[in-house]
Q: What sequence folds into this?
């Protein structure tokens, strides 16, 4: 199983759980796809976009059910990032856990599957 990751404000994720589907954040809506990160990219994504933010969750998503709506496209420095074109069905979520803040506003990441 290949797993990708999404950092999500807890309140936004609670809305998704109520609806059974995640349509992305405002940033995702503006870009036309849901941004994800690979295991190797999560720390940089957290530092670049979420430093100092609390009440975040790290959502682990199995790529298999996403099919051809998932595209690996160049982004920061030409690295390929996973982008989902369309909503995320919560059935693809394998785990969701708190992303706590550590010293200096940096998040404490769990060990991630690749």
A:
């Amino acid at each position: 199983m290949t797993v990708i990751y999404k950092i999500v404000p807890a309140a936004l994720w609670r809305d998704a759980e109520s609806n059974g589907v995640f349509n992305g954040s405002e940033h995702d809506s503006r870009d036309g796809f849901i941004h994800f990160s690979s295991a190797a990219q999560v720390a940089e994504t957290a530092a670049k976009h979420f430093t100092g933010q609390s009440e975040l969750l790290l959502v682990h998503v199995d790529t298999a059910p996403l099919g051809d709506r998932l595209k690996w496209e160049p982004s920061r420095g030409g690295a390929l990032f996973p982008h989902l074109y369309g909503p995320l069905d919560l059935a693809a979520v394998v785990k969701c856990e708190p992303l706590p803040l550590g010293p200096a506003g940096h998040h404490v990441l769990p060990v991630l599957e690749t």
